[in-house]
Specification:
about 425 residues, alpha/beta, Rossmann fold, 2 domains, five-stranded mixed beta sheet, 12 strands
Length: about 425
């Protein structure tokens, strides 16, 4: 076969589905990128580079189990979408559903998020396919330390900085910091963010994602001319993010009428005393709270409310249920809770959307503050942290609103175009090496 004929055949052949594209979450992330690219001037070569992560590491993590002494092998991932803007930044999650495509999609979302917030990071994400609910503290420690050992070559304060995510917490970050510090021979708190305050963590970091979401919600209510005291709220997810959103909105006078977590959901048309619910869940399951009616997760998402906050997992608002939403404001605290098909339906409704890449950007923003403090060895007060967080969140929020109005875009598309444009410009400036 002639060379020209061979090249034509290769170009005509569709690309085979790769390991990333098998994940519906990754296909969704790529679809969002392609839709946003239609609204911006982006070099086709740069677009191709943005579609795939720069690096993906898959490791096996054998640990000895406490129950019977057997060795169990877990699979872990660390995906770095971009290192163009600086070190990659993103959480580490422990959940049974973790796979390479999901982690790669979340790393891509993080790149856009850092771009919108103007942070000197690229996006990253990591995860281990496990269920921490059924693991002992010793098993989780061994799992975390072994994973850290396996990815040592690709992490570092100027390479890749991890943070807590679904199923992980401050203690997880402390184990990573200690393992890394022992390997390099000195204390290195800047290797992770979201760690305990006594180890160089940032005050207010745990609440940052929820607080950032609340700043956006209050600004949106102001724009919609809705008084906080008249607003009702339904929150799916009552973990680190959802519980903070519930508490902060409750303290501002909003009525929290529905709350859900992995055990189920509860409803009270007169509103919950969130402080009392928080006390209850420290000792018992949410669905056993005596002052609420048990409802399904579907009923929670579709209940009549002013503000709906999906703060749990991805892809919960779909083509099937989008038309049944009865909220005025959809505030996405989770990553990727709305599918592109659902977006098309919502764009033809009167629902105001705060998209995830701005709504939950408070976490990575305060992670940036923590990273800077650790590098400088100069700690800030919680008042300083919250003031800076509110300023940056509202600056980004209004920038997105301006983009949406001027270019006649949805809030999601406006946010995506801003984040992607920044990442694309940086790649164009640095060029393609070699």
């Amino acid at each position: 076969m002639a060379i020209a004929e061979h090249e034509e055949t290769c170009l005509a052949k569709p690309r085979e589905v790769g390991v990333y594209e098998r994940s519906p979450m990754f296909r969704m992330a790529c679809r969002q990128l392609e839709l946003a690219a239609e609204h911006i001037d982006i070099d086709p070569g740069v677009l191709e580079r943005l579609k795939l992560p720069k690096r993906a590491v898959l490791v096996s993590i054998p640990i000895r189990m406490d129950s019977d002494g057997r060795t169990e092998n877990f699979i872990g991932y660390r995906v770095q979408h971009s290192l163009t803007s600086g070190p990659s930044k993103g959480g580490l999650r422990y959940h049974p559903s973790v796979d390479l495509g999901e982690v790669a999609a979340l790393a891509m979302f993080m790149s856009w998020k850092c771009g919108i917030m103007n942070l000197p990071f690229g996006g990253a994400k990591g995860g281990i396919a496990c269920d921490p609910e059924y693991m002992t503290i010793g098993e989780k420690e061994r799992l975390t330390r072994r994973f850290t050992e396996e990815v040592l070559a690709v992490i570092g304060p100027r390479k890749d900085v991890m943070a807590p995510d679904l199923g992980t917490d401050e203690q997880t970050m402390a184990w990573i910091m200690d393992t890394y510090s022992m390997k390099v021979g000195y204390c290195c708190p800047e290797i992770v963010t979201g760690k305990p305050v006594e180890l160089g963590g940032c005050v207010g970091r745990r609440q940052a994602t929820g607080r950032g979401m609340v700043y956006c919600i209050m600004e949106a209510l102001k724009e919609l001319k809705i008084e906080p005291g008249t607003a009702t709220v339904a929150i799916q997810g009552f973990g680190n993010v959802g519980s903070v959103v519930a508490k902060e909105l409750f303290d501002r006078g909003l009525k929290i009428i529905a709350i859900g977590d992995r055990t189920g959901a509860i409803y009270n048309k007169n509103g919950f005393d969130v402080d009392d619910v928080l006390r209850h869940v420290t000792r018992d399951r949410l669905v056993r709270y005596p002052k609420g009616e048990v409802i399904s997760q579907a009923e929670l998402l579709e209940c009549s409310c002013t503000v709906l906050v999906p703060a749990a997992i991805e892809r919960v608002i779909t083509e099937e249920n989008a038309s049944r939403l009865k909220c005025r404001l959809l505030a996405e605290a989770a990553n990727g809770p709305t599918t592109p098909e659902a977006d098309e339906i919502l764009n033809n409704s009167d629902i105001y959307i705060i998209p995830d890449i701005i709504g939950n950007a408070g976490g990575v923003t305060v992670s940036y503050f923590e990273w800077v403090q650790d590098l400088q060895q100069w700690m800030w007060t919680e008042e300083q942290i919250n003031r800076q967080l509110e300023e940056l969140m509202l600056r980004a929020f209004h920038k997105i609103r301006k983009q949406a109005r001027e270019r006649q875009l949805s809030m999601r598309m406006a946010a995506l175009t801003l984040g992607i444009e920044k990442a694309a410009r940086e790649k164009e400036r640095r060029g393609l090496f070699p």
